[in-house]
Amino acid sequence: xxxxxxxxxxxxxxxxxxxxxxxxxxxxxxxxxxxxxxxxxxxxxxxxxxxxxxxxxxxxxxxxxxxxxxxxxxxxxxxxxxxxxxxxxxxxxxxxxxxxxxxxxxxxxxxxxxxxxxxxxxxxxxxxxxxxxxxxxxxxxxxxxxxxxxxxxxxxxxxxxxxxxxxxxxxxxxxxxxxxxxxxxxxxxxxxxxxxxxxxxxxxxxxxxxxxxxxxxxxxxxxxxxxxxxxxxxxxxxxxxxxxxxxxx
Length: 249
What we know:
Blueprint: H1 3-30, H2 50-53, E1 54-56, E2 72-76, E3 79-80, H3 91-100, E4 116-119, E5 122-131, E6 136-137, H4 138-144, E7 152-162, E8 166-176, E9 178-183, E10 186-191, E11 202-203, E12 207-209, E13 212-222, E14 228-234, E15 245-247
């Protein structure tokens, strides 16, 4: 071996050892193999059920909750609507769409639980449900049924049973996004525009709940985003009215 080769040998050994050391550190730094990520749920996942957020209504009349909110409703499966933006939901938009996709022009009719309606080319079913919260979340309702959750119109009906006439009451409502409400066949509230669900967002003029049955009908329409509502009656002082029962027939 010549003199030049002998002089480079220590350097070559040092470089080889350095490369092995760096590779070893890299391998150990990576640690054990990572576990596989859980699969992403498909869009059609319907693990929610109606009983997660609702109770199937019974024949026993129900009282409003502690703050007077009405929790029992007949709810029709959603009418699919092509609504790209909620800012198109004006008063005239509501009237036009609720007239075009109305299940009945008799605003005092009470549908049958489990009955069906034909609106356009859709066959839609009624459900009598008690919501577990003060507000009725239509997103949870439509998701549980694997129905459209955005761009929808939903009809609602409930029956208020009063032991005596109650004068000078006001209906209050909040919804996301637009809605209209009728009491005993008369329109009493309109909520238009791109709204969030705020309790008592709009208040009606003075109303009278007659002795016996009073029919409330509502319609909620929404494009993108959540859809839910809350309704109750208050007296002249803004206190909740609770001396009535609620049924679905």
